[in-house]
Amino acid sequence: MNTPDDLKYTKNHEWVRKHDDGTATVGITDFAQNELGDIVYVEVESEGETFELDGVFGSIEAVKTVSDLYCPMSGEVLEVNPELDGNPELVNEDPYGEGWIIKLKLSAPEEWDELLTAEGYQAIIS
Q1: 55 neighbors 70 (Cβ within 8 angstroms)
Q2: 1-19 pLDDT tens trace
Q3: What share of the chain is helix, strand, coil (3-state, %, to 5)?
Q4: Cβ contacts of 77 within 8 Å, gap of 6 or more
Q5: Which domains, and CATH codes, for the chain?
């Protein structure tokens, strides 16, 4: 499984890319999209809402199951990936790139230190 070293991860299979401007991009991991199978719908109607760590900000639907999406860090949802509306399969095709799900304005940047490294995440999924 692809697990880029420049990202941090959660036990719930989300990844986080922190930016210098106090924001972060969030998606699901390569492992998660592989386990879910073909993604048919991503439901995130929480733009503008603020979430605590591990709050449910949406759901992702595959052919056989629906899974909640958990906020990996506390913050406000600034943007939902508009491309996922018509192309949810982007999550399968490019989970760390074009298949990102939300952008957050972080309210507790120190939570970054509590997230898993790529190595730590790989230990959980192997």
Answers
A1: yes
A2: 899 999 999 999 999 999 9
A3: 20, 35, 45
A4: 44, 46, 47, 48, 49, 50, 51, 57, 102, 103, 104
A5: 8-108 (2.40.50.100)
Q: Which of 109, 44, 53 is nearest to 78 (CA)?
A: 44
11-34: string of b/e by CB count within 10 Å (b at 16+)? ebbbbbbbeeeebbbbbbbbbbbe
What's the angle, vertex CA 50, arms to CA 48 and CA 52, rounded to 5?
Answer: 160
Q: Tens of pLDDT along 36-87?
A: 999 999 999 999 999 999 999 999 999 989 999 999 999 999 999 999 999 9
Amino acid at 14: E
User: pTM (2 decimals)?
Assistant: 0.96
